[in-house]
Amino acid sequence: MAPKPWAQATATLTTASLTVAVLASGAVLQPLAARAGLLTPLLQLMRPQLEERLARVCVTMASGGDRDLERSLQDPCRQLAGPASRCLVEETDRSGRSLGVLSDLIGGRFGDDSEMVVKRCMARMFGLPSGVLDAVPLRQLAQRFAERSRQPAPAAGQP
User: Fold this and answer.
1) Calpha distance 93→101 (Å, rounded)
2) What gap in Å lies between CA 140 and CA 65, rounded to an integer?
3) Whole-angstrom distance, CA of residue 110 vs CA of residue 73
4) How far apart are the C-alpha atoms of 18 and 24, rounded to whole Å?
5) Local confidence pLDDT in tens for the 159 residues of the chain
6) How far apart are CA 36 and CA 33, in angstroms?
7) Which of 19, 37, 72, 85 could form a disulfide with 51 if both were Cys (CB 3.0 to 4.6 A apart)?
């Protein structure tokens, strides 16, 4: 006995419905970190600006206002900024905090999401376990370095 056309159509419709339901539930139930890559292209577009800003901050903070030191730090800071910006983009993507970090970048803030990503990247670049810097107050460290960079450089031969 041949299957009736309506039964075959119902089976096909049921199979299609189940397939769509499984695919939809998989997308909804995926962990956020697995879907974090959605903003990666935007982060990659912003990476050159981030790299340039990192290089400028590196020169400014490390030179302490000394013009000769500023000139000699240009190339090393630029070379450090490349891997640092790549790390920041990768860690932002891995963390699942892309939206928060992008919001911080656009708003010119250094929020909790950005701080967490910076800590993860610093740990990675120094070969440390990822959570080892969680308790380090980066904002306070940044303020301290900023204050020190505004102080006049010591004269030659003085500590």
Assistant:
1) 10
2) 21
3) 25
4) 10
5) 555 544 444 343 333 333 333 333 333 333 444 444 677 888 888 889 889 988 998 898 888 889 999 999 999 999 999 999 999 889 898 888 888 888 887 888 888 888 889 889 989 998 999 888 888 888 777 777 667 666 665 555 555
6) 5
7) 85
Angle (CA) 115-118-122 rounded to 5° is 140
Where in the chain are the domains?
A: 37-150
3-state SS string for 57-104: HHHHHHHCCCHHHHHHHHHHHHHHHHHHHHHHHHHHHHHCCHHHHHHH
Instruction: Give yes or no for a contact between 19 and 11, defined as CB atoms under 8 angstroms apart.
Output: no
Phi-psi group of 115: left, alpha or beta (phi > 0 → left; psi -120 to 50 → alpha; rest → beta): alpha
The answer to whether residues 102 and 39 touch, using CB atoms and an 8 Å cutoff, is yes
User: H or E segment at 40?
Assistant: helix 40-63
Predicted local confidence at residue 74, as pLDDT = 95
Q: Are 102 and 45 in contact (CB under 8 A)?
A: no
What pTM did the predictor assign? 0.63
CB neighbourhood size of 30 (10 A): 10
Give residues with Cβ within 8 angstroms of 103, minimum separation 6: 109, 111, 113
Query: For residues 96 and 36, is the Cβ–Cβ distance under 8 A?
Result: yes
* Residue 27 DSSP SS3: helix
